[in-house]
Amino acid sequence: MYEQLKLDNQLCFRLYSAAHLTMKAYQPYFAPIGITYPQYLVLLVLWEQDHQPVCDIAKRLMLDTNTVTPLLQRMEKAGLVIRQRGEQDTRQRIVSLTDKGIDLRDKVADVPKCLGESIMEQVGSADELKAIIPLLDQLIEGLKKIESKCQNC
After folding, report:
1. Quick check: 59 and 49 in contact, CB under 8 A?
2. Residue 128, in any domain of the structure
3. What secondary structure, in 3-state letters, does 91-130 show?
4. SS3 category, 83
């Protein structure tokens, strides 16, 4: 009677499951070096461009600053980043990598390749896997538009 409400008919559940399982797949690579998947994402942003305001990191990760701030606090305690007041705006916090945070880049450099190879063993070729990236990007952009419309309601 309510086919649309069956779990197996939900796109959102498939996306949630894929995201959850992706985070779990990274765990064996990150546990020995003491980072989590969300911390890895922050490190990726900072490895691309160091010395960023918290709000820019949050925006890049599509998260609220309230979510990113506790994550950064844990990373600071672990010695991966430092947070300093902005020079022009002292209310702003600028996040920078420490030497330890920079050095982690070498330790995790092979993780995407290793994980990609493991995934390809299960699902098929690299071309098949790469083919879904543009579709996921379109989905993300569409969901961003829906989110911005909902914020204006």
Report:
1. no
2. no
3. CCEEEEECHHHHHHHHHHCCHHHHHHHHHHHHHCCHHHHH
4. strand
Give the distance, in angstroms, between the CA of residue 24 and the centroid of all CA atoms in the same chain: 13
- Residue among 47, 45, 40, 10 nearest 23 (CA): 40
* Residue 74 structure tokens: 């844990």
Q: Would you mind telling me the total number of residues written for the chain in this entry?
A: 153
The pTM (predicted TM-score) of the whole model is: 0.88
* CA distance linking residue 119 with residue 24, whole number of Å: 13
In a domain, 141, yes or no: no
Q: Which residues of the chain have pLDDT under 50?
A: none
Report CA Rg, the chain. 18
Determine, yes or no, domain membership for 16.
yes
The CA distance from 57 to 41, in Å, is 10
**CATH number (domain holding residue 18):** 1.10.10.10
Total domain count, the chain: 1
Domain limits at 32?
A: 3-109
Q: What digits encode the pLDDT tens for the residues 103-140?
A: 999 999 999 999 988 888 888 788 888 888 999 999 99
134 inside domain: no
